[in-house]
Amino acid sequence: MTKGMKEDPPIGPAAAAPPSTRGTRVVVRRGARSVEYILIFTICFVILSLLKLEPIARNSVQNHNSAIDQPTVLKLQQRFKTETEVEIIQNYTEFCEGCRQNPSLRSTCGERAQFLTSRYNVSTNDAVNKVMQEQPQNCVIMRFNISNITADIVKIENYTFNKSMYSKLNSTLDMKKPIPMLGKGKISIFVYEDDTIPYNVGLGVEKDMTARYSSMNMTYENFKADLGLLDLFRTFPGRTKNPDEADIFVVPYPHASHCLQLNTVKGWARECGHISRSSINEIISGLMHYKGNEKKHLFINSMEVWHAHPLLRNVPLSLTHGPRLNEGGHHIVISYLMSDDPSFQPSAVKQRGVQWWLRPRKLALSYFFGSVNRNMGKNYRWYRQLFLEEVRTNWTFSPYLGHLPYVVESLGNHHLHSKNGLGYFNSIYKHSVFCPVLPGDSPPHKRFFDVIIMGCIPVVLAFETDMTSQSKTSWHSPGGFPVEFSYPFAKHSNSIGTESEIDYDSFVVQVKEVGEMRETLEKLLRNHTEIQRLQLNLMKNAQYFLYGMGDDRHLHEDAFAKILQSLEMYSSLLQK
Asked: Which of 128, 130, 113, 102 is nearest to 389 (CA)?
C-alpha cells in the first residue's frame, strides 16, 4: 500500500441498515387488530349461539326429560312469548297447605297450622311461618308467579255476572209462543200444585232460596238445581192437569235447597239430619195420588245421593247428582246447574262456533285445589294431595308444560266467595288446554262440568273397580263407583236410549296415577290433531250439561231434554 494513503475499509458484508421504524409499527398494528377482530367475532358467535340454543335446551328439559339443566330458571326472571304478548315469570315460595307435614303421615301442613292456631292462640300467619320452619322440605312449594298472565286474562274477560236467570223463573208459560220441545207428546207429566206441599217446606223455601241464589251470596251453589228443575217441569208443554193421563208425577219439594236453607239456621248435619222425619212424612202423606203410583212419583234431590235424607234417598224414582246406588230406588244421575248467567245458556254456548273451541290457549293446565277437611273422606281427597306433592317435587324445574305455562294454586289465594270469584276461575279455565279434575267427596263434582263448558279438556285419574259394570273403571277411587253409575247418561248406564248416551271417553283424558300426568299431557300437546279431536267432542257434548232457563227453556237439546228422554224410557219399562 502506498505510504500516506488511507487504508480502505475491509471488504465484507455490508452492515445492516437500521430497521425502518415506520414500517415495523404498521405490521404490528395490523396484527393486533386482526386478533381483536377474531376475539370479537368469537364472542359474538358464542352469545348468538347461546341465545339460539336457549329455547332448544328449555324444550329439551320440559318435553324430553333430557339431562340438560337450567339452574338459573329458579333464580332469574324469564321471558316467554305467547301468541300475542311477552310476559315475565318469577319464582316464589308458597305455603304448601295440602301437602303432608311428614311423608309417613296423612296429616297436612295446613292441619298442623290449624292446630297451632287453636292450641296456642297465635295468628294464622305466625302458625304458617312456624310450620314452614319446622318442615321446610315438605311444607314449602316453589311456584312460578304468573299473576301477570292470569290478571291480564281476567282483565280481558272483564267477567261480571249479568242478571241471574233465577230472576226469570216463572210458573206460567205463554202458550201462544210455539215451543218445539223435544219429547212433547211422548210423555205426560203431572206436577202437583204449590199448595200440596206445606208452605214452610215448599213454596216458602223456593221464594227464599231464589232470592239468595239471585244475589249470589250462597256458598253451596251446587244445591240450586232443584229450583230451576221445578220451573222447567211446571212450564213443560207436556204438563197435564189430569192425573189419570200422567206418566210421571213431579213432587214440588226442593229438598236440596231446603237442606241448605236450614243449614244457615241449625247448622249442617249428615244426611240432611237437620230436617225432621215428620216434615218428610208430612210431604209424602199429602200426595193424594201417591198410593198405587209410587214408582211414578219423581222426587228432585239435586245433591249427592248420600246427602239426601234417609227417607228420600231410595224413593222409587229420583233425580240426583250421583252416584247411582242401586239399592232399590231408581236414581237418574243429572248434571249440576252451571252458572245461571245468561252467557252460559244453551243458545249462547251454541253461538260460540267451532273456532271458539279450537282457539289457541295461553295456559297448558290450570288446577285450583282446596284444603282438606278432616270431617270428609281423606281417602278420596288424598289424590289431590298426591298431585300437589308431585307438582312440588317434580314440576318446579320449569314453569312450562310443553310450550305453555301452567297454573296450580290454592283456592285460598282467590276470592272464591265474592260475586266474581267463579268468574275468575272460569276465565282461567277458558284459556287452558287441560284442567285436572281429581277425586272429591263424591263422584262426580261440579268442577268436571265447569271446565267442559269453558272448553277445557278434563283430566281424571282412572282406577280399576270390581263393581259390576261395563267400563270396569272408576274416576273416583280404587274399587269405587264406575263411570256409568256416576256421570249423567253415560255410555252403558242404561239410563237413556243407547243413541242418546254420552261417550265421555271421547273428550276426557285418563291417567293411571298422578306421576304419569306430566308425561301424558306433554305428549298430547305435541299431537295437535288429537287435541282438536278432544276439543270438538267437548263442543258436541257441552249443551247436554246445561239447562235452558228463562227465554231459553224448552228450546234446545239440553240437560232437561236428556232428563225427559230418560223418564220416557223409564215410563215405557213400567208399562211392560
From this structure: 102
Q: 227 φ, ψ to 5°?
A: -65, -40
CA distance to 126, 169, 226, 457, 471, per residue, from 178 (Å): 64, 19, 26, 37, 42
Letter for the amino acid at 352?
R
Check residue 159 and give left, alpha or beta (phi > 0: left; psi -120 to 50: alpha).
beta
Residue type at position 168 = K
Say if strands 140-145 and 86-95 run parallel, antiparallel, or are unpaired: antiparallel
Read off φ and ψ for residue 422, nearest 5 degrees. Answer: -65, -30
Give the separation between CA 230 and CA 254, rounded to whole angstroms: 8
Query: Is 0.90 surpassed by the pTM of this model?
Result: no
Angle separating helix axes 203-214 and 255-266, nearest 10 degrees: 80
The per-residue pLDDT for range 114-170, each reduced to its tens digit, is 899 999 999 988 999 899 888 878 888 776 766 666 666 766 665 544 455 555 554
- What is the maximal distance between C-alpha atoms in the chain? 168
The three cell numbers of residue 315 are: 224413593
Grid coordinates representing 293 are 203410583
Bin 20: left if φ > 0, else alpha if -120 < ψ < 50, else beta. beta
pLDDT tens per residue, range 258-277: 998 887 666 677 889 889 99
382-399 per-position pLDDT tens digit: 888 889 889 888 888 888
CA angle, 120 as apex, 116 and 124 as ends, to 5°?
50
Q: How far apart are CA 490 and CA 533, in angstroms?
A: 19
Long-range contacts (CB closer than 8 Å, 24 or more residues apart) made by 50-58: 58/398, 58/400
Checking DSSP bridges between strand 400-401 and strand 317-320, what pairing results, if any? unpaired
**Whole-number Å distance between alpha carbons of 357 and 18:** 86
CA distance 369 to 99: 11
Percent residues over pLDDT 70 in the chain: 71
Q: Rounded to 5 degrees, what angle do the CA atoms 468, 471, 474 make?
A: 85
